[in-house]
Design the sequence.
């Protein structure tokens, strides 16, 4: 688990990454704690301000790279590669809010009946990756609360 201070640092870092990326510069130098060297999942969400509308959200749910690399990739992708939205422009930077979700490794939950999930999943704490056949969907922990 990351501390609140590390979460704040992750958001500031994501904003710097996005700013550099939409201005055509490479990622800025990052001074992150050693925890960010460990593999971890990260999602970056961009919302408009003040109307709080989704503007981009992309992430790496599995711990397949360092948390710092996942932060860079998710921040740049949320700003410019979310297929639901046009690329974020430099003129929009002052009117968006950046949110970063640092994820723990997913854990498999097996149930016999869907109702059993109610005893195993805590709303607002746990996210969900639902898989059925080749289809896959992800629900970040904060989404049901919002």
Sequence:
């Amino acid at each position: 688990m990351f501390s609140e201070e590390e979460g704040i640092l992750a958001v500031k870092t994501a904003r710097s990454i996005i700013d550099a990326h939409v201005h055509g510069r490479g990622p800025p130098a990052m001074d992150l704690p050693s925890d960010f060297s460990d593999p971890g999942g990260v999602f970056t969400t961009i919302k408009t301000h003040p109307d709080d509308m989704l503007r981009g959200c992309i992430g790496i749910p599995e711990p397949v790279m360092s948390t710092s690399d996942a932060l860079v990739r998710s921040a740049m992708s949320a700003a410019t590669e979310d297929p639901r939205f046009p690329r974020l422009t430099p003129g929009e930077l002052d009117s968006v809010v950046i949110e970063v979700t640092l994820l723990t490794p997913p854990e498999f939950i097996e149930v016999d009946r869907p109702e059993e999930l109610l005893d195993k999943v805590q709303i607002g704490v746990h996210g969900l990756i639902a898989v059925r056949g080749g289809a896959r969907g992800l629900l970040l922990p904060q989404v049901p609360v919002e």
Summary: Helices lie at 4-22, 67-80, 117-120. The chain has a mean pLDDT of 93. The first helix runs from residue 4 to 22.
